[in-house]
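Q: Could you write out the predicted structure for this multi-component system? I'm mainly interested in how the pieces pack against one another.
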Amino acid sequence: MSLDLVVVGCGGHGREIAQIVAAVNESAARPPWRLAGFVDDDPSESNRKRAEACGAPFLGTLAALGQLPPETHVVIGVGDPRVRQKVAARIDTYRRPAASLVHPDATVGPDLVSAEGLVVFAGGRITTNVTAGRHLHVNQNATLAHDCVVGDYVSLHPLAAVSGDCRLGTAALIGAGAVVLQGLRVGAGATVGAGACVVRDVPARTVVKGVPAR
Ligand SMILES: CC(C)(COP(=O)(O)OP(=O)(O)OC[C@H]1O[C@@H](n2cnc3c(N)ncnc32)[C@H](O)[C@@H]1OP(=O)(O)O)[C@@H](O)C(=O)NCCC(=O)NCCS
């Protein structure tokens, strides 16, 4: 039997995740999920319509989660790690389990140790001996290499490449197309700009950009 799944967020990231749900279902002999709908505290009219065009209703604000059966799963469709962290804190109050979703065109090492809420988009790659916290999002064609340890709410944006043995702190954001060289640390709440090449550790809550990243 399929499990009901609600996407939190009607924006582009949430709707991309709805596509992952569809792809996962299509690739399975028995579809694991039924997309039950979207919730969002303040969706624009256009995003709300686009979400409903994904084939599932708009259910209301996050408070609607409290009315759903307790076995209803959630996935956070919010790309920004810091916002995802805040949304997760709210969802936790409703005690709904978080789904983990791996697109059928992604690869994840069998020895991955991940907390709930992992989302790996098409072309995402997680190799071997990676440990990940809650609600890690690895976007399209991003890679997370061997022996990395990743905190909660981290985002790798499309085409980001994190080399082996790196440490990424809570809610770190690795921008689109950025590279983090092997063995480096990116601190909690830090942002690596799109296209950057990180060649030394990045302190917590700082923004670095460029090649080499500064
Ligand atoms: C680095 C980043 C965080 C800076 O954001 P910001 O502080 O709002 O930056 P601004 O847009 O105000 O730009 C400030 C300056 O940095 C430059 N800049 C912005 N992003 C840059 C980047 N990624 N690399 C190099 N320079 C960049 C701007 O050209 C501007 O330069 P100027 O002062 O000489 O005009 C942001 O641009 C970024 O790259 N975020 C990652 C986004 C991402 O991956 N998006 C994909 C979503 S799927």
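A: Regarding packing and overall arrangement: Residues 3-99 form a domain with the Rossmann fold fold (CATH 3.40.50.20).
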